[in-house]
DNA sequence: CATCCATGCAGAA
DNA sequence: TCTGCCTGGATGG
C-alpha cells in the first residue's frame, strides 16, 4: 500500500544502509537471479525515489528499479549501525511497521503527538523476526523466506524485497525513459507548473488526474481522498474547472501530506484539533479514507460516501466537498 | 479452512 | 473497462 511517502522513506533507508557500500545480492525466489548476480559484489552508489518508483545506482552504470505495486514491501534487519529495522510498504505482520526515522522530531502542529508505538532506538521496537536489534551483538541474517525476490546484504544488515510489481536492472537510458513518463514529484521539490498546466487543460475528473502518475508522481488513493477533502473539492469536478490557483494549492498540499508521511511513516491528514474533537471519540488519521458511513470530522454529519472511480474506491464527504 | 480485499498499474479488449 | 500480477492480513464459516 505504498504511496510516494513510503518509497521516499525506503529510498532514504536503502541509501543510509547500503549507499556507497559494496553489497551482496541474491534472489532466493529465483525471479531476479540474473539481476542479482550483476549487482552482487558491486557498490550501491545511491538510492533515490521518484513518485512510487525506487531506484538505486549500481557501480558500472546500471540502475536497479523497484516498484512495490499493491503488495510489495521491504523488511530490514541488522545490527545497530542500521538506522532502524523496519518494514516499508504493504502492511505485514505485527511488529513489522514503518517507524519514524531516528532523530526525527515531529514539530508541526498537524503532526501526531500521540503515536502509540515505541520510538526507534528505545529498545522497545519490534523488529523483523521478532528480534530487537539492540540485543543482537553480531549480525546473523535469518534465512530468507522463499518469496524474497531480492536480498541485499552487507556485513551490518540486510534488506528483503517481497511482492514487488517490478524489480529489474535498467540502463541509465532506460531509467530516463521511465522517468520521462512520470509527472513532477512534490517530495523532490519539483515545481507544480507541469501538473497545473496539464491539469488545467483536461476535462477528466480531478480525482482521476491526481491518481495519474504522469500528471503528478507519488499520489495514491489515500492522498487523493484526503487532499481533495482538505481542499473542499469534489473529486468528480473536471480538472480544468478547478482553476490554476487551487490546482497549485492542491499540489502543494499533497507535498505537505507526503512530507508528513515521510516523517511519521504513515499518513496523518487530520489536524490535531479535528482529531481531538472527533465525533464518537477515537483519533482518526483520515477525514474520509475508509470512513464511509461515519460522521464527518468537520460537518459532523454522516455524509461520507464511498464510490468507484476508474476501478478504485473513492471516498468523499457529500457536504464538505464541492 | 476458504474467501475477500488492498495505499498499484500494465496490458489486453 | 477488465484481467492479472503476487502477497498476506482480515473476515467469515
UniProtKB/TrEMBL annotation:
GO BP annotations, alphabetical order: base-excision repair
Keywords noted in UniProt: DNA damage, DNA repair, DNA-binding, Endonuclease, Glycosidase, Hydrolase, Lyase, Metal-binding, Multifunctional enzyme, Nuclease, Zinc, Zinc-finger
Keyword Ribonucleoprotein tagged: no
Biased composition (Basic and acidic residues): 93-108
Region called Disordered, residue ranges: 93-125
Formamidopyrimidine-DNA glycosylase catalytic domain location: 2-89
Domain (FPG-type) ranges: 287-322
Alphabetized GO MF terms: class I DNA-(apurinic or apyrimidinic site) endonuclease activity; damaged DNA binding; oxidized pyrimidine nucleobase lesion DNA N-glycosylase activity; zinc ion binding
Recorded family membership: Belongs to the FPG family.
PANTHER family: ENDONUCLEASE 8 (PTHR42697)
Name of the protein in question: DNA-(apurinic or apyrimidinic site) lyase
